[in-house]
Amino acid sequence: MKVTSIKDEGLDKIFRVTIPQSNLNEAIETRLKEVAANAKIDGFRIGKVPIGIIKNRYGTQVKGEVIQKKVSESIKNLFLDKNIKPALQPKVDFEGEPMGDKDIKFKVSLEILPEIKILQFSNIKLERLIADVKDIEVDKALKEISKGQKSYDTIKTKRKAKKGDAVLIDFKGKIEGEYFKGGSSENHTLELGSGQMVPGFENQIIGMNIKEEKEIEVKFPSDYPNKSLAGKKSIFEIILKNIMTSKQTEIDENLAKNMGFPDLKTLKSSIKKQIESNYNKTSRNRVKRDLLDILSNQYNFEVPKTMLENENKIIWERFEQDRKAGVIDELDKGKKDVELKKEYKMIAVRRVRLGLLMQEIGSNNNITVTEDEVKNVITQEAKRYPGEENKVVEFYKKTPEALNAVRGPIYEDKVVDYIIKNCSVSEKKVDSEELFTEVVKENENKKVNKNKEKKTKPLKTSE
Fold first, then answer.
1. Which structural domain range is residue 225 located in?
2. Which residues, listed in sequence order, are joined to residue 5 by a DSSP beta bridge?
3. What is the pLDDT of residues 428-451, one digit of tens each?
4. Is residue 129 part of a domain?
């Protein structure tokens, strides 16, 4: 194999590779003998077929296999010899007809991963906010739980439904005369004024009587999660079956037992642990955000153009989807596409750069994601869809892209945790209000300085 470098510009490389025909002929002859040893052809015993017949029948196929194998081996050896780490799959262009009788010549065009010199993490200073859970916060959470555990009594005197009542209804939704999936329910309990349904739905039930039937018209919000319904007008057929008054549940031992806890003390303890977990998650996200900002400022290596183009395309496509749904960041409103594309390209640069940095740090320190870690995340995701857990798990098994989408954040978090462990981290005791106030202030500052950040930093932090 002969290798010639014909382009060496930054991360862009092009090599010309030549495989002598003599090497191919030798490999082809060896492969034909292997085929002959096991070929089944009428009129001949296995292993006794003349080589001429084997060549006539399998020659073209064998030559194609050998060329493919030799090209693959040559590229692999090229990477090993030159110590090349390709950013993406290389492009191979043959010069001339590879199936002819001359030497095989082809170009290998690729972008390599940049060399990244990892700096000392011990020089990075971070601050972790620590908040203790107060009894008053547990009591507040208990009150919210009791509100969600309301019981209902049927009204004793005949009257129309009013705000604050709970009604038992059947409803069926239509869009352009066709019933739509997920738009129907029977014996649905709805507290009027709770905001549980689409805006305008509950208000139009107020004033209805028991056994009354009615059609109401509502419009789904432009930012409705189900994009197929967002912004569309719909007609709902309503049957009001009962009107009930709500009764507040007392915070006592019965409440705890109804929620599956042995007593109120155990319920309170569980609530406290959940709040602590939320505080720790908020604090950790803040530290992570600060860390990524620091790393983004510390590293400024070149990124592969193709990786950047792919990331930029993903970001812009998401923006256009949101724009069609009417969901646009306030700071993006009124801007021309040329300006927006420039800003979002800077976001793409930072994401790619931080991604490559995380990969390099993880690789250097043997950080990996186990199958159990992936399964755990998928299991948690499946629990969000009661009755369809097996479908969710099966979807991930059959969809490599979805599995990578699970594996990626796990890997990033493990690398981030490794870096934080080796940084200089101080702790600051705060109350819960200050913990969340700090987060709000940071988000507000980011919005105010968003345009400036995009010009001075390659990419905004993870959010």
1. 151-247
2. 15
3. 999 888 888 765 555 544 443 444
4. no
